[in-house]
Amino acid sequence: MDKLDLFSGIYKGKKVLITGDTGFKGSWLCIWLKELGADVYGYALPALTQKDNFIATGLSDKIRHMDADIRNLEHLQKYFNEVKPDIAFHLAAQPLVIESYNNPHYNFETNLMGTVNFFEAVRKCESVKVAINVTTDKCYQNNEWIWGYRENDAMGGDDPYSASKGCSELITNSYIKSFFGKGNTAHVASGRAGNVIGGGDWADNRIIPDIIRAYQSKQESVMRNPDSVRPWQFVLEPLFGYLKLGEKLWTNGKTFSGGWNFGPAAFENYSVADVVDEVKKIIPAIKIDASKTSEKLHEAGLLKLDITKAVNQLGWKPKLNFEDTIRYTIDGYLDELNSANNIYNCRVKQIESYCKK
Ligand SMILES: NC(=O)c1ccc[n+]([C@@H]2O[C@H](COP(=O)([O-])OP(=O)(O)OC[C@H]3O[C@@H](n4cnc5c(N)ncnc54)[C@H](O)[C@@H]3O)[C@@H](O)[C@H]2O)c1
Q1: Coil, strand or helix: which one is 184?
Q2: Which residues make Cβ contacts (< 8 Å) with residue 272, sequence separation at least 6?
Q3: Average model confidence (pLDDT) for the chain?
Q4: Average pLDDT over residues 284-307
Q5: 169, 155 contact by CB (below 8 A)
Q6: pLDDT at 300 over 80
């Protein structure tokens, strides 16, 4: 199948606006959409470092990007009205639990009012037919259950990040029910994914970037919460879900509105320590200090997503097992460590390899 025909070919020639395009997941989404023949526009704060995927892949020359703050409603609305996108994905957010403790006000302002501003811009821009808000598994009220959360479970969140994402979901629901439910309005949904990993993510306090940074500087990295089981996913897995969701909303409309979980299969239960062991198989030289694991701030110990709805109704399912997930991820970083590589082409190769699965 020609890659342009994936997702029923709906992205080919469409204007797609991504907030948070300079970030880890947003930049991968831009690359995939470009390869699907979309005309891609971005809106976000500037990338933080030269190593970030947005810079490393030269995306600023390949898409049209606007450096701007999601909290500025007037500016965001103006940008939407100039671009007139067909489809919009919202990924601009403060995404880190630890950062949300350091600066809760900024966290709530960005993640709550950022979502409100996104939907206001969508609501007032008639060209938008599909809009997807990207949230997280942490939006659910976490009862430390051994089974996965379903889309109709209660929203919640104790730490400021999780609470802000629970709120972002409530905001999405409110806009769907109040403004997008009727007539010729946009079809709106949200995607809830787990712990996403892959080359190009250099955020602080995330296990794999921490390991690779320590490996590069020949130092030991510290393992936080080694026993925490997380829904690890290679970045293309949830992105495949968001793109599939966009296709269904575009072709079938509002029956696909609402929340959707995109997580690993139920039997894939792996802890932070398992991740470290798997990375060690690929890069034996990494050094981990497991004695300094004291993480004082509250972070949920067990979190799983029930993906039955996406599997049955969207035709989405995870394609990679745990071993492949770590392999694709580490390959992505190793691509970056070889300065002779064209990183954009390396990312495209991974997308093509993933699509073959
Ligand atoms: N990475 C994960 O494991 C993971 C898991 C679940 C959900 N998510 C969600 O996916 C989305 C993207 O996460 P990511 O990992 O790519 O994060 P990231 O930090 O790499 O990217 C965040 C993006 O948001 C932009 N942004 C942040 N504050 C902004 C502001 N005030 N104005 C404009 N832009 C702003 C940044 O510039 C960047 O482009 C977030 O909503 C995050 O909560 C991430």
Answers
A1: coil
A2: 207, 223, 224, 225, 226, 227, 228, 230
A3: 93
A4: 72
A5: yes
A6: no
Q: Taking a C-beta distance cutoff of 8 angstroms, is the pair 310, 261 a contact? A: yes
pLDDT at 307 over 90: yes
Ligand 1 center to 20 CA (angstroms):
6
When pLDDT is cut at 50, 70 and 90, the band that residue 3 belongs to is confident
How far does residue 44's CA lie from ligand 1's centre (Å)?
A: 9
Q: Report the alpha-carbon distance of residue 179 to residue 254 in Å, rounded.
A: 12
Residues 173-197: b if buried by 16+ CB within 10 A, e if exposed: bebbeeebeeeebbbbbbbbbbbbb
| Per-residue confidence (pLDDT) for residue 287, from 0 to 100 | 86
Beta bridge partners of 234: 197
Q: Facing residues of 248 across strands?
A: none
Classify domain 3-194+234-266+300-321 by CATH number: 3.40.50.720
Q: What are the extents of the domains in the chain? A: 3-194+234-266+300-321
Cβ contact 249:130 at 8 Å: yes
What is the per-residue DSSP string for 44-74?
Answer: ESPPSSTTSHHHHTTGGGTSEEEE--TT-HH
Q: Residue 357: how many CA atoms within 13 Å on its side-chain side?
A: 17
The string over 216-235, giving b where at least 16 C-beta atoms fall within 10 Å of a residue's C-beta and e elsewhere, is eeeeebbbbbbebbbbbbbb
Nearest to 158 by CA among 166, 148, 150, 169: 166
At 170-206, the pLDDT tens digits run 999 999 999 998 888 999 999 999 899 999 999 888 8
What pLDDT, in 10s, does the model give residues 152-175?
A: 999 999 999 999 999 999 999 999
Contacts of 69 (CB under 8 A, 6+ apart): 45, 75
Quote the pLDDT of residue 224. Answer: 77
Q: What is the pLDDT of residues 330-340, one digit of tens each?
A: 999 999 998 88
Which residues neighbour 39 within 8 Å (Cβ) at sequence distance 6 or greater? 13, 14, 15, 16
- Pocket test residue of 25, 97, 110, 236 for ligand 1, highest count of atoms within 8 A of CB: 25
Ligand 1 centroid to 50 CA: how many Å?
Answer: 17
